[in-house]
Amino acid sequence: MSDKIDSITELKEMLDNYAKRRGIKYEESKKAYLEYLDKEFNIDNPDTEEEELLTDLAEGFSVETRRMSSGANLVTWVGQFVGVNPKVTDRRKNMRTRLAKAYNADSERALSEGTVGLFSEKNGEWSLTTKQGTTKYEGRMKDGVPSDAFESSGDLLAILIANKESTRYLQPMPAYSVGRYAYFLGNMEDQIQHSVQMWRVDLQNEDAEMDLQLGRNVSFKAKSPNPNAKAGWDDVVNTTKAFGDSVSYGNDWVSEDLLKATRPERFWVDDEIHNEFVPLDELMDTYEAKKQKISNGEGEFGPVVLTKGVVTQMSTEGMSSEYDPTGTIYTLDVTSRVLSSQFSDPNLANVRVWVSGALLEVTKPFHFLDEEDYVGYAERSSVLICARIGVSRRDGNTYPKLTAMGVIGIPGRCRRRITGGNTSVGQFN
């Protein structure tokens, strides 16, 4: 049986409630769900699927919605956002691909299986064809077409709920679901005095595009950590649809004696309260100690860490990049007292930081917070960085590099950029 199902708190709760309602054991409920995935969606290995997809499909299986099952176990989290993954992931891409392939190969058979439907329009009215026939579609619309539709070879298809017990049987579910992780330094409010670490907060759909004020004290409502999460997933904080509305910046949760301790220049680097900070001169050692193999076996990736440096060079004009989600990437070179005193070679004395254009859309990596206003900083400013460690190889040598998840200038330790405090993204184009 799938171990991943047991590691998803919300999904496990849904299956447990399903079992209680039917007077069966949890393992029987889980087995029935696995059979449902295999029969209705051709998913024979749930461990390879996205967590959100498995949870969404369980809505149809258990006839419950996430909104109904998720609100009871929300807790307050406190700390600071320190970064965000530049890439927004399309979490239903594999499912759309699978259903489109089946439909394009044999449309009648695909429709008869009840997992895919066909939208069509005639004289301004939309209809939905499923294995039960064609009915008028009166659901949500977007830009003149059904909002739950996805296009394949000129047809508009629907992902259908295939559970016959569901009140939404053969009705379409959203064809698209996106998300990315924000990096958060803190803990649940009742644990912050005892333990601080970096977490990945799951930002879903509209929340994936929300602005984040890095380095500011913040609180929000989300789920408790999953005690059954598999290694590598135990740092994920799952959220609900109301997450964005719960985010509140301010010092309400901070006692007077902790105000100085939560200033970002202290909070991000304090090795007495967490193990997330790595000095620039220790990046290579940390990479070697914590690197992991990419799942396909081709290459390795390093950990996400917090670090600190002084800007020696910066490019805010941007360079074209086919690998960046926005098509534009920026750079910072940073150094530290230890690096600059040890090495005269600039390749060794400086660390290159790659800043995605996507970060400029939701954070302010080239600014520092001056009281309540964001002001652009210049070279020789001190910055805090949340980034994934990587390596670059030149002339037979290996050097550390950083792919930024977040960058902030340290208030009081930044030189103002000569252009002043323009906070618009347009200044970097």
Characterization of the model:
By secondary structure, the protein is of the alpha+beta class. The chain folds into 4 domains: 1-64, no CATH class; 73-90 and 178-261, OB fold (Dihydrolipoamide Acetyltransferase, E2P); 92-173, no CATH class; 278-428, Beta Barrel (OB fold (Dihydrolipoamide Acetyltransferase, E2P)). It contains 13 helices and 24 strands. It has helices at residues 3-7, 9-22, 26-41, 51-62, 66-70, 93-105, 107-112, 243-246, 264-267, 283-290, 337-342, 346-349, 357-362, and strands at residues 74-84, 89-90, 116-122, 125-130, 133-136, 141-142, 145-146, 150-152, 155-160, 172-173, 178-188, 197-204, 217-223, 236-237, 248-249, 292-293, 300-301, 304-320, 328-335, 351-356, 367-370, 373-376, 382-394, 397-409. Strands 1, 2, 11, 12, 13, 14 and 15 form a 7-stranded mixed β-sheet that branches. Strands 3, 4, 5, 8, 9 and 10 form a 6-stranded antiparallel β-sheet that branches. Strand 8 and strand 9 (155-160) form a beta hairpin. Helix 2 packs parallel to helix 4 (51-62). It is elongated. 37% of the residues are buried. Mean pLDDT is 88; it is low at 63-72 and 420-429.
Question: How does the SSE layout of this entry go?
Answer:
Blueprint: H1 3-7, H2 9-22, H3 26-41, H4 51-62, H5 66-70, E1 74-84, E2 89-90, H6 93-105, H7 107-112, E3 116-122, E4 125-130, E5 133-136, E6 141-142, E7 145-146, E8 150-152, E9 155-160, E10 172-173, E11 178-188, E12 197-204, E13 217-223, E14 236-237, H8 243-246, E15 248-249, H9 264-267, H10 283-290, E16 292-293, E17 300-301, E18 304-320, E19 328-335, H11 337-342, H12 346-349, E20 351-356, H13 357-362, E21 367-370, E22 373-376, E23 382-394, E24 397-409
Parallel strand pairs: 12-14, 20-24
Antiparallel strand pairs: 1-11, 1-13, 2-11, 3-4, 3-9, 4-5, 6-7, 8-9, 9-10, 11-12, 13-15, 16-17, 18-19, 18-23, 19-20, 21-22, 23-24
Helix pairs in contact: 2-3, 2-4
